[in-house]
From TrEMBL:
The keyword Transport does not apply. This is Aldehyde dehydrogenase domain-containing protein. Gene3D superfamilies: Aldehyde Dehydrogenase, Chain A, domain 1 (3.40.605.10), Aldehyde Dehydrogenase, Chain A, domain 2 (3.40.309.10). The lineage of its organism: Eukaryota, Metazoa, Ecdysozoa, Arthropoda, Hexapoda. Pfam families: Aldedh (PF00171). Keywords: Oxidoreductase. SUPFAM superfamilies: ALDH-like (SSF53720). GO terms for molecular function: oxidoreductase activity, acting on the aldehyde or oxo group of donors, NAD or NADP as acceptor.
């Protein structure tokens, strides 16, 4: 049951299975984006706190530690136990997520259930990570071992706080690593609650550490720390480049980056317009448009363009914006004042550059950070709203003539995270799927992210993959062992 008055129990840094104040004694506010008012003061971690967290994580990773001596199936059992505790406290987690992030409560609960499934997927994979035996030349027995990289740093965003935590913790723990995580400063509440659940589940001291704080300080300390062996980041391209540079200049730590997108969704002339408009609607307005895979470039065939724009407008106008805890709300606020003003700025630029504002574009209410679902028509590829990631509820509908043209224009971007096509022609579906430069491609659907399939991007949308078996590779080293055998007799 949704609880807009949910108690906030955990506001301190979590190191070595204990909640502690920041070394500096500093705190920072986390704000409810529905009201713009402070929810709680959170301990502000920085370099000193990261140092303590790394020390704890290193101690938990020594060969003789409880964690390193634990069977792989034991790690899986702990992950499963954590998922059952999340199930027990699902209402608490979802309420905290809605308060801190602003997403409607049913969406927050969907994220909770999805995160439970993520942990259970990796619980099942924990004892299935193995190497190979290799038929090497000469009198040798050769095999490979998969070993955890060690202490890993993880920096997660504010748009899907709990889901991104699960995407990071799941494979790292299944692989046997220890963790120092920094949640986004806008949304630390569910990460700190999960830290408490991890202790209750029985994870040994130092295996999981959570240091809330700001990117340049806490995040910078993680990405440049010489004893962290891998850093995983989800967020903007700009910050991803900073993290990659810090990883290179510190100790050449492994890096996985899941970054931004400007994803295309191509609507073919044979598509059912009602169905296509609904797919596009969900693809762009999900999570208030604060979604890295949002299909903000909607390419529509010229023969159905006007009909599609009309239908898209009807859907956007009917979308209920408001209090995340109110029944029937499907669209909450933007995350904070900075993002709110950025989105409004893009809407203004879109109009100045000649795009047709079909619907939306205005603020909603007199408190919080609410913006109407917004649709632009007559958008051209050279417009700012067609090129830059807005990260808000803004759909740009673009006209095209041929599929080849649509593919070329879809690929004409520095991003490559996701793409989609709506068509009843299997040849068009396969041609597009094979030609488009994107890590995830969806046909007659969108946002079909599943735990079993790898997720990540081409080009500046990132390095490495989340989810699926592929994500484990970023947390593992491969060791080759060769043993000389006795000579034949």
């Amino acid at each position: 049951m949704a609880n807009p008055n949910q108690e906030i129990k955990y506001t301190k840094i979590f190191i070595n299975n204990q909640f502690v104040d920041a070394v500096s004694g500093k705190t920072f506010p986390t704000v409810n984006p529905s009201t713009g008012k402070k929810l709680a003061d959170i301990a502000e971690g920085d370099k000193a706190d990261v140092e303590l967290a790394v020390k704890a994580a290193k101690a938990a990773f020594v060969r003789s530690s409880t964690w390193r001596q634990m069977d792989a199936s034991g790690r899986g059992a702990l992950l499963w136990k954590l998922s059952t505790l999340m199930e027990r406290d699902a209402n608490v987690l979802a309420s905290l997520e809605s308060l801190d992030n602003g997403k409607p409560f049913p969406n927050a609960m969907y994220d909770v259930q999805g995160s439970i499934k993520t942990f259970r997927y990796y619980a099942g994979l924990a004892d299935k990570v193995g190497g190979d035996t290799i038929p090497s030349d000469g009198p040798h027995f050769t095999y490979t071992r998969k070993e955890p990289v060690g202490v890993v740093g993880q920096i997660i965003p504010w748009n899907y706080p709990l889901a991104m935590l699960a995407w990071k913790w799941g494979p790292a723990l299944a692989a046997g690593c220890t963790i120092v995580m920094k949640p986004a400063e806008q949304t630390p509440l569910t990460a700190l609650y999960m830290a408490a659940l991890s202790k209750e589940a029985g994870f040994p001291d130092g295996v999981i550490n959570v240091v809330p704080g700001y990117g340049p300080t806490a995040g910078g300390a993680i990405s440049s720390h010489p004893e962290i062996r891998k850093v995983a980041f989800t967020g903007s391209v700009e910050v991803g480049k900073i993290i990659m540079a810090a990883a290179a200049t510190s100790n050449l730590k492994k890096v996985s980056l899941e970054l931004g997108g400007k994803s295309p969704l191509v609507i073919c002339e044979d598509a059912n317009v009602d169905q296509a408009a609904m797919i596009a609607y969900m693809a762009v307005f999900e999570n208030q448009g604060q979604c890295c895979i949002a299909a903000t470039r909607t390419f529509v065939h010229e023969s159905i363009y006007d009909q599609f724009v009309q239908k898209a407008s009807e859907l956007a106008k009917a979308r209920k914006v408001g209090n995340p805890f109110a029944e029937g709300t499907v669209h909450g606020p933007q995350i904070d004042d900075t993002q709110y003003k950025k989105i409004l700025g893009y809407i203004e630029v879109g109009q100045k550059e000649g795009a047709k504002l079909v619907t939306g574009g205005k603020v909603v209410g007199n408190e919080g950070y609410f913006i109407e679902p917004t649709i632009f028509a007559n958008v051209t590829d050279d417009m700012t709203i067609a090129k830059e990631e807005i990260f808000g509820p803004v759909q740009s509908i673009i006209k095209y003539r041929t599929l080849d043209e649509a593919i070329e224009r879809a690929n004409n971007t520095s991003f490559g995270l996701a793409a989609g096509i709506v068509t009843n022609d299997i040849n068009k579906a396969l041609t597009f799927s094979h030609a488009v430069e994107a890590g995830s491609v969806w046909v007659n659907t969108y946002l079909a992210v599943v735990n079993q399939a790898p997720f990540g991007g081409y080009k500046q949308s990132g390095i490495g993959r989340e989810l699926g078996k592929d994500s484990l590779e970023g947390y593992l080293e491969t060791k080759s062992v060769s043993i000389r055998l006795p000579a034949k007799v």
